[in-house]
Design brief:
Layout: E1 14-17, E2 31-34, H1 37-46, E3 86-91, H2 92-97, H3 103-107, E4 113-119, E5 124-129, E6 137-141, E7 144-145, E8 165-172, H4 176-179, E9 186-192, E10 199-207, E11 211-221, E12 225-236, E13 245-258, E14 261-275, E15 288-302, E16 308-322, E17 338-355, E18 358-373, E19 378-385, E20 393-413, E21 416-427, E22 435-445, E23 450-461, H5 465-469, E24 475-476, E25 484-496, E26 501-513, E27 516-521, E28 530-534, E29 537-550, H6 551-554, E30 561-576, E31 581-583, E32 590-603, E33 606-617, E34 620-625, E35 630-635, E36 639-649, E37 653-660, E38 679-689
Parallel strand pairs: 6-9, 24-28
Antiparallel strand pairs: 1-2, 3-8, 4-5, 6-7, 8-9, 10-11, 10-38, 11-12, 12-13, 13-14, 14-15, 15-16, 16-17, 17-18, 18-20, 19-20, 20-21, 21-22, 22-23, 23-25, 25-26, 26-29, 27-28, 27-31, 29-30, 30-32, 32-33, 33-36, 34-35, 36-37, 37-38
């Protein structure tokens, strides 16, 4: 199998700081930061491997009937059945069955994932895991860290259309010793290009509100070389005023295999423009935003007995935010649009050594994060023109460098498995002092179908540039913020039998320290700014249940009922903060989340998928009446939404129709950004394979 995941960590030991002259990656190396040169040299040469997709079943009980795939829950190769953590894997088959057309819609069905959509169909969504904030989740594309350092609002701006995603892996809980810094409450890895057969896939979809999506991807595979190419265009007139959007993606993934060695190249670009009705403040419903993301990575890996992999990557994100979309009619005090450009450059490496006492992984990662802006950062001596914008200039900049070193050892004996490791982390903003974040996972098969597991892991998150520097008429950043830290305990039981019954029951507690939030006193005047601060300690408790029934196996002799899935999660938070504090993000969490999906055949090749979601959110928001200027406090109300998808499937094509929010429920994920009502979509997919 091929390598599906690479995990970021930070090893910068001798590297020159970015200065911003023309914001090119290699033009900005002007000032040396020296620390631990021997370490980076060592780890670069030995290479990097985190989730080599090699089949290693020596430590798996052969009687356990599981579809074993390798997942990114450790730095050493690990099969799904071996992990002592909660990892949710969503396959292509599950993706195609659900009534969804975007990544954020799909993640709604994962129990402990909270999706707060600002705009529909992937325009912009805030993703959090286990009651954390949207800045505490690491996003990876084929294992490369593409998380945005400016703000978590932009982390899902990945240059791949929804139809090209083959699998999603979601690690719930802290992932510092596996993925690196900022995988505070979880990590989500999007995987593409898994097919080894030459073919072409195309998708044509249209729907209400002028919606259309045109996309295609192709795989060209030979014995040694494989290319995956994808492109799509998505647009809509909007479901209410100023919610129109247009987006397109281009993506290439190439793999060259020679003997036991592989070189992989990824290149992608995405461009999105969208009306942002009340996105960040209901006082200004005519907001607009355009984002552009360019991404590239190059990896070398060896599939030898002791595998390794080294990767280098670059991500550029450019954002223009308009508080007034119609600049001519903007308020007299409006000074102009916000412009931001971030450049992230990283390299990582990992070596896995297999010996009689298990597998040991040694690795490191370096990541440099730079920003140019007219809002975020520190003042520059000379302004710089914003690429592609007329009469717009960057006046501020900032850079920080992150370095991590990793050590992990995994061992299995009969029915018992253990994995323990640590991340040693250093950051230029923290005075280049090392801090260590350890963790351990344990698992034991009680019998052929029951497994118990437990883990203890420490994690951390650096503030985003928005946390540190953003200053407007309504919010104010804090450059003196400390990093967030947490210690998480979790345990659970997994069940899987040959009759098609599979479930996971888990519980966790997370002790958070120096948690970052935007807040202000509850009795503050309406016009007082929301300010970032370390609001001290938050303890989060959670329970999660995931159940899957293969109804064809369970009820032999019938093929009408195909599958049933049910997920439920419960959360509670205890806070140690000043009395009367009003949070903007941290304390608006899902207390209860329930989802159920039933797949069944109607007749012949026609099938249906019904989904029900229920959410009950803690917290409230201020609703602003733009006609009267009156602002009132409201509590989030529980809601339930039903979606339906009907599919006619043939080997070469699929025809589908879906209805989201079937009963036209009025609800909001965040503030008064009310989500679309009933929305009908129809489409067709073609799958042409070639020998």
């Amino acid at each position: 199998m091929r390598l599906n995941s690479i995990f970021g960590c930070d090893v910068a030991i001798m590297f020159k700081k970015w200065q911003g002259s023309r914001y090119a990656v290699f033009n900005s190396l002007n000032r040396c930061i020296k620390i631990g040169m021997l370490s980076i040299m060592y780890f670069t040469f030995i290479g990097y491997t985190q989730t080599f997709a090699q089949t290693d079943t020596s430590s798996v009980n052969k009687k356990v009937s599981l579809q074993e795939i390798e997942v990114s829950a450790r730095r050493t190769p690990v099969l799904y059945s071996e992990i002592g953590r909660v990892v949710t894997v969503i396959s292509k088959k599950e993706i195609e069955a659900l009534p969804v057309q975007s990544v954020d819609q799909l993640l709604e069905y994962v129990a402990q994932v909270d999706v707060r959509q600002r705009g529909p169909l992937g325009v912009q969504s805030d993703i959090s895991v286990r009651g954390g904030s949207f800045d505490q989740v690491m996003i990876l594309l084929n294992g490369i860290n593409v998380t945005d350092p400016q703000t978590g609002h932009h982390s899902l701006n990945i240059p791949v259309d929804f139809q090209s995603i083959e699998r999603i892996e979601i690690l719930e809980g802290p992932g510092a010793r596996v993925h690196g810094a900022n995988a505070f409450s979880g990590a989500i890895n999007f995987i593409t290009g898994t097919s080894n057969k030459t073919g072409v896939k195309a998708n044509l979809m249209g729907g209400d509100h002028g919606l259309y999506n045109l996309g295609a991807n192709t795989t060209i595979a030979t014995k040694q070389f494989k290319s995956f190419i994808a492109a799509n265009k998505l647009a809509s007139n909007g479901y209410i005023d100023n919610t129109d959007f247009s987006a397109y993606n281009l993506f290439y993934q190439g793999q060259l295999n020679i003997d036991n060695e592989q070189v992989e190249l990824q290149v992608g670009y995405t461009d999105k423009g969208f009306g942002s009705n009340s996105f960040y403040s209901a006082r200004y419903p005519n907001q607009y935003e355009q984002t552009k993301t360019t991404f590239a990575s190059l990896s070398f890996s060896s599939k030898s007995k002791n595998p390794f992999k080294s990767s280098i990557y670059w991500r550029r994100h450019q954002d223009r935010f308009e508080l007034f979309r119609d600049f001519v009619n903007a308020a007299s005090w409006y000074g102009g649009h916000n412009y931001h450009l971030t450049d992230v450059f990283g390299l990582n490496t990992n070596k896995v050594i297999k010996w009689k006492y298990g597998k040991t992984a040694l690795g490191g990662d370096f990541r440099s994060e730079s920003i140019w802006s007219n809002v975020l950062g520190k003042d520059m001596d000379d302004k710089i023109s914003v690429p592609g914008e007329k009469d717009a200039f960057f006046t501020k900049k900032y850079n920080r460098s992150n370095t991590s070193l990793f050590l992990e050892h995994s061992y299995s004996y009969n029915k018992f498995s253990i994995s323990a490791g640590l991340m040693a982390y250093v950051n230029s903003d923290l005075g280049w002092e090392f801090d260590v974040f350890p963790g351990i996972d344990l698992g034991y098969w009680i019998n052929d179908v029951f497994k118990i597991y437990g883990s203890v892991n420490k994690s951390m998150r650096m503030p985003t540039y928005t946390d540190l520097f953003y200053n407007s008429s309504t919010i104010q950043g804090n450059p003196d913020l400390k990093p967030e830290e947490s210690l998480t305990y979790e345990g659970g039981v997994k069940f899987n039998n040959a009759n098609g019954v599979r479930f996971n029951l888990s519980a966790f507690t997370r002790n958070g320290k120096n948690m970052i939030d935007w807040g202000k006193p509850a009795n503050a005047p309406v016009d007082e700014k929301w300010k970032t601060s370390n609001i001290n300690d938050i303890q989060t408790y959670g329970i999660e249940f995931n159940g899957n029934l293969n109804l064809v196996k369970l009820f032999e002799g019938q093929d009408v009922l195909k599958s049933f899935q049910m997920n439920y999660s419960w959360l509670n938070q205890d806070k140690s903060i000043p009395e009367g504090y009003n949070s903007r993000y941290v304390f608006d969490y899902l207390k209860h989340k329930f989802s159920a999906t039933l797949n069944h055949k109607i007749f012949s090749e026609l099938s249906a998928s019904w989904t029900l979601q229920y959410q009950d959110r803690v917290g409230g928001y201020s609703e602003y009446d733009i006609t009267t200027g009156v602002e009132t406090s409201k509590e989030y109300e529980p809601f339930e939404v039903v979606d339906l998808k009907i599919v006619w499937s043939q080997p070469a094509y699929r025809l589908y129709a879906e209805v989201t929010n079937l009963f036209d429920k009025k609800y909001t994920d965040i503030g008064q950004l009310y989500q679309p009502g009933k929305w009908v979509k129809v489409g067709m997919q073609f799958n042409l394979g070639f020998k």
